[in-house]
Design a protein that fits this description.
The complex is a heterodimer. Chain A is mainly alpha-helical. In chain A, 58% of the residues lie in helices and 0% in strands. The longest helix of chain A has 30 residues, at 206-235. Helix content of chain B is 51%, strand content 0%. Chain B is mainly alpha-helical. The chains are: A mainly alpha, B mainly alpha. The A-B interface holds A 11, 14, 18, 21, 24-25, 27-29, 31-33, 36, 58, 62-63, 65-67, 69-70, 73-74 and B 20-21, 23, 25-26, 28-30, 33, 35, 38-39, 41, 45, 48-49, 51-53, 55-57, 59-60, 63.
Chain lengths: 296, 87
């Protein structure tokens, strides 16, 4: 009895595919690059996270895509793929918790401060003594914290001066003030969640990915400085007193600038070395030199 | 015939003379295809990643080439009679 000829069809077709270069290429593409016809621009936000992640990684991280396809062919579960792709993208410098967050573009944290928000002070009670120097007292407020008009100007003036100091610890305090008064120059540190949401997200194009990695890396470095600066102020009363004295002088200067609300106060601030560190010499604030030049 | 002497026939012969493309994925399919399935299994991870990376780069090049061909400027055939559309 002969076998059903239909059963031989598969072997016959497999042989044809193997021997024909064009069919073999088509078969190899279907096996190893199943998403080759899809484009990230064609994807809808409603697509599931894994589909979007595969399309995005195919374009932005080909090696991660290759690893994901290899795992799909090896029978990996969706959870394993999620873990693999998130882990690999995080390792490249873009923290990613879930694949769903990829659909709107590169997810960026918003670590900015909204001084008017009472919840901020519950999360960061350590900054209360510093902000008190600027006339901010959240303990009296329940819904919206009142921030004096001059507080931002004074905070930015102090931060700007501190960031020019040779002493690393004073510069770290400068970053802490720059964060508190949203003038660090890094969007992750200057924007709160609401404001960040209003900015169109970065795409997964190579140029945007490189920019996001740089932005996140810089924010992480500055955040480390912020934490060090806050800790140093908490543990070094002499430094805190010096900051208080300079802030007081800035406010006095602002008071004398009646009617010049748009101008930054030009004042000579001195930040002398404190503690047992390397103690870089204090430098005169360039604003003062500018002031002298303008007066001449 | 083009200005440099190329005809449709010489172009066709030139393209047909190109050797068939050989990618790692094609070699794997040819050598490791199972008798009872479409795709090979049990291939080392590094080999698979190499094959996928190569074929992804190829399909991207092919896609871009297709887009470029689709956007070629039209070439007027001034000396070519097209009798089918004669009025």
């Amino acid at each position: 009895m002969t076998a059903n000829p239909l059963l031989d069809t598969y072997t016959f077709l497999a042989g044809v595919v193997r021997d024909d270069p064009f069919l073999l290429l088509a078969n190899a593409v279907a096996w190893l690059d199943p998403l080759w016809t899809l484009d990230a621009d064609d994807m809808e936000l409603e697509e599931d996270g894994l589909s979007i992640a595969l399309v995005v990684t195919r374009r932005a991280f080909p090696d991660i895509y290759a690893g994901a396809v290899e795992r799909i062919r090896a029978g990996a579960s969706e959870g394993e793929l999620d873990h693999f792709i998130c882990g690999e993208i995080t390792r490249r410098g873009i923290p990613l918790d879930t694949l769903e967050s990829m659909s709107y573009g590169i997810p960026l944290d918003a670590a900015g401060v909204l001084l008017e928000d009472p919840d901020f002070y519950g999360q960061h009670p350590d900054v209360l003594p510093i902000l008190a120097l600027f006339g901010i007292d959240p303990e009296r407020e329940m819904y919206t914290v009142e921030v004096p008009d001059a507080a931002y100007k004074a905070g930015r003036t102090a931060a700007d001066s501190l960031l020019k100091q040779p002493d690393e610890r004073w510069r770290q305090v400068g970053w802490a003030l720059a964060w508190l008064f949203s003038c660090s120059g890094n969007s992750i540190l200057d924007l709160d969640y609401e404001n960040m949401s209003e900015i169109p997200p970065l795409s997964w194009e190579a140029e945007d990915v490189a920019f996001a990695v740089e932005l996140i890396e810089e924010a992480n470095g500055i955040m480390a400085d912020i934490n060090a600066g806050l800790k140093w102020l908490q543990t070094t009363p002499a430094a805190f007193d010096q900051l208080a004295d300079n802030v007081r002088r800035i406010f006095q200067k602002i008071k004398t600038m009646k009617g010049k609300t748009g101008d930054d106060p030009r004042i000579r601030l001195e930040w002398t070395p404190v503690g047992d560190g390397d103690g870089g010499a204090a430098v005169a604030d360039p604003e003062f030199l500018q002031f002298r030049r303008d007066a001449a | 015939m083009s200005a440099n002497g190329w005809t449709t026939e010489t172009l066709r012969e030139c393209l047909l003379a190109l050797p068939p493309l050989e990618l790692k994925g094609m070699a794997l399919l040819r050598e490791r295809r199972p008798a009872d399935g479409f795709f090979p299994a049990g291939i080392p991870r590094t080999t698979m990643v190499e094959a996928i990376t190569e074929i992804t780069a190829y399909t991207e090049r092919a896609r871009r080439m297709g887009e470029a061909l689709a956007n070629l400027a039209p070439i007027p055939l001034l000396t070519q009679p097209v009798l089918e559309y004669g009025l």
